[in-house]
Design goal:
- The chain is an alpha/beta fold.
- Helices cover 50% and strands 19% of the residues.
- It has a 5-stranded parallel beta sheet with strand order 2-1-3-4-5, with helices on both faces.
- It starts with a strand and ends with a helix.
Amino acid sequence: MQPLNVVLLQSDSRVAQSLVSALANTFSSVRQVQSLGELRSSIAKHRAGIAILDMETASISDIEHLSREFPTACIVCTHRLADEDMWTAAVNAGAADIYPPSDTRGIVRTALRNACITNSAAA
């Protein structure tokens, strides 16, 4: 399996730093970005297999566009107050799952599971 690179867009800088620290223990590289445009550029430039996207900085339409633009990337969303409707909309738009940003274990588990599935399909 090839190294997994992560790009992270998170609205709260303290939460972002916490996620970067937690994810750095599992993934080859973790890059924090400040905007959706920077997220897109960074996914392409660094061949990121995982994009972690704060739903407070992006819309469902943005998830759909990212999913079409980067079909092999695993998109994991975060939101402080995600409910069932938001989860359903995010998953239907192409996200692998949605978690509170404090659930690093869930984020890592979903990212790894989906990255493994994508790598297996590509082989």
